[in-house]
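Give me the 3D structure for Relaxosome protein TraY.
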Amino acid sequence: MKPSVTTRLSPTIYETLVAAASANGRSISAEVEKRIEQSLEADEDQKKRREAVASMVAEAQSLKLP
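Predicted structure for Relaxosome protein TraY (66 residues):
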């Protein structure tokens, strides 16, 4: 069984969520879970991009140009 979370939403966010769930053929709960999953994946992707950029900057700074 999945853990349960209770939260409060503004009416605008709730209506947007209901519309998105309907458009995507999901329950509200499934829509919330999918959106959270996508958000967490985006956070991880952003972290990886920042690390890659930092690595490239460090490498560029270490180059000894004439």
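Residues 11-62 form one domain. Let me know if you want a second pass.
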